């Protein structure tokens, strides 16, 4: 299985000690580099790094003001994200907004949409149905939203003249075909039941053969997503 895009994920990639060197290496190898972050650990000094080594930066944003702060349990996080987005807008950095749609923020999605429309450099807005994966199961009763309500909340977008691409992902779209690699080189995916499932390690002698068997399972929505 060949690939030309790599996504550094988190929580927050910028909080990882080895992230910056890994991102530089990926860029030097000709890979399209996407970095996903909740924005907490981005500093002023990181913007020059982003401009040079990051092709697309994904920012987690679940609402405006206290809606986002409450969802992320961080008192002033929205203010930080607002500043980060403003700086990235000045740099004309390509941005992808990642939003988790839940029972808690479903009434704030239209306000978030209007906020995002203020920016000129947002490539896409990915909206994900809350998926009680692994440790998120403990919050299932608070955040869970069913697929019909997920669709209903987002119907207003079908009538809007959008400046950016909008992706809507139910959690049933996000199983098996999403392959992750942790910091130790272990590859895994997740099941519809919300469990992580080990695939192999990138250090296995037969890793190429093992990955080739998964080709038919890769989510078609993600195969040619950015380039």
How would you describe the overall organization of this protein?
The protein is of the alpha/beta class and 227 residues long. The protein has a single domain (5-223), classed as TIM Barrel (Alpha-Beta Barrel). 30% of the residues lie in helices and 21% in strands. The chain has nine helices and nine strands. A six-stranded parallel β-sheet has the order 1-2-3-4-5-6, covered by helices on one side. The longest helix is centred in the middle third of the chain and has 15 residues, at 77-91. It is globular, with a radius of gyration of 18 Å. It starts with a strand and ends with a helix.
Which architecture does the CATH hierarchy give at level 2?
A: Alpha-Beta Barrel
For the biggest β-sheet, the strand order reads: 1-2-3-4-5-6
H-E order: EHEHEHHEHEHHEEEEHH
The CATH class assignment is: Alpha Beta
CATH superfamily: Aldolase class I
As for the number of domains, it is: 1
What fraction, in percent, of the residue positions are helical? 25-40%
Q: Tell me the Rg in angstroms.
A: 18 Å
The overall strand count is 9
Which fold does the CATH topology refer to? TIM Barrel
């Amino acid at each position: 299985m060949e690939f030309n895009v790599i996504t550094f994920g988190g929580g927050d990639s910028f909080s990882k000690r080895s992230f910056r060197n890994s991102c530089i290496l990926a860029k030097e190898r000709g890979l399209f580099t996407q970095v996903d972050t909740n924005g907490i650990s981005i500093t002023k000094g990181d913007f020059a790094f982003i401009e040079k080594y990051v092709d697309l930066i994904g920012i987690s944003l679940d609402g405006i003001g206290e809606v986002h702060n409450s969802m992320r349990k961080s008192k002033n996080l929205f203010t930080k994200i607002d500043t980060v987005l403003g700086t990235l807008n000045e740099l004309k950095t390509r941005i992808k907004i990642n939003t988790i749609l839940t029972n808690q923020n479903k009434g704030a999605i239209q306000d978030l949409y209007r906020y995002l429309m203020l920016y000129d450099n947002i490539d896409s807005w990915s909206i994900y149905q809350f998926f009680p994966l692994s440790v998120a199961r403990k919050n299932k009763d608070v955040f869970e939203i069913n697929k019909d309500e997920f669709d209903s909340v987002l119907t207003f977008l079908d009538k809007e003249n959008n400046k950016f691409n909008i992706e809507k992902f139910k959690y049933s779209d996000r199983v098996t075909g999403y392959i992750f690699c942790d910091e130790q080189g272990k590859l895994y995916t997740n099941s519809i039941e919300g469990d992580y499932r080990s695939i192999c390690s990138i250090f296995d002698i037969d890793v190429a053969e093992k990955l080739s068997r998964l080709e038919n399972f890769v989510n078609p929505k993600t195969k040619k997503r950015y380039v």
